[in-house]
Design a protein that fits this description.
GO terms for molecular function: flavin adenine dinucleotide binding; L-pipecolate oxidase activity; sarcosine oxidase activity. The chain is of the alpha/beta class. It contains five helices and twelve strands.
Length: 206
């Protein structure tokens, strides 16, 4: 379908921004059976956002002031596992996550409390173990906290997989289409350099 043919359509949802947050939001909307349009201002793929590159850390380990992130992570891990299975390629490397801190270990204690609250196993690592196992030249006062479930996501591969699945679920992805104006109303209107679109819902992920 030519892009101009989309102009008269009333979309269930328009997502602005096709980085990892926007692409995942669009994927989820399309998976629910919603007519979804995702608009990206730059040609895909590109390196102008924060969703490109080799890897991004994923972990349950967060300090007490980020306790909400620790509560969100079990679901995030499950969703990435689902995306990886559908993509039929490796997106996650389970290499573990190691946090190191010097006395009085305030950050480690906060992380440990969060992990225990969420039922995530972890292991304290002393300075001697850091030297022998990880070859870190650290003072004796240093300690580490190892979360074995942590690891890295292969960032660019993840983004491509999410966008591919969005399209397979029936979504429409327009790249190189910068949004110029958003007009609220009973139905939101989104004007771009290439056209104008209407939707019941709008998701902004700048």
């Amino acid at each position: 379908m030519h892009r101009n043919e989309h102009e008269g359509k009333l979309w269930d949802c328009i997502v602005i921004g096709a980085g990892i947050e926007g692409s995942n939001a669009a994927r989820y909307s399309a998976k629910l059976g919603k007519d979804t349009l995702c608009l990206e201002q730059f040609p895909l793929p590109h390196s102008r956002g924060s969703s490109h590159g080799q890897s991004r850390i994923i972990r349950h380990s967060h300090n007490l002031h980020d306790a909400h992130l620790s509560r969100m992570m079990p679901e995030a891990f499950k969703l990435w596992e689902e995306i990886e299975q559908l993509a039929m390629t490796q997106l996650f490397i389970n290499c573990g996550y190691l946090e190191i801190e010097d006395y009085p270990y305030t950050t480690l204690q906060g992380i440990l409390a969060n992990l225990q609250d969420n039922g995530i196993s972890s292991e304290m690592v002393n300075a001697q173990q850091l030297k022998e196992k990880y070859h870190f030249d650290v003072p004796e006062s240093m300690q580490g906290l190892l979360e074995r479930t942590g690891g890295v996501l292969l960032a660019s591969k993840c983004l491509r997989a999410v966008q591919d699945q969005f399209v397979k679920f029936g979504g429409v992805l327009h790249d190189n289409e910068k949004v110029l104006e958003i007009i609220p109303g009973d139905f939101v209107q989104v004007k771009t350099k290439k056209g104008s679109y209407r939707a019941k819902k709008l998701i902004l992920t700048p």
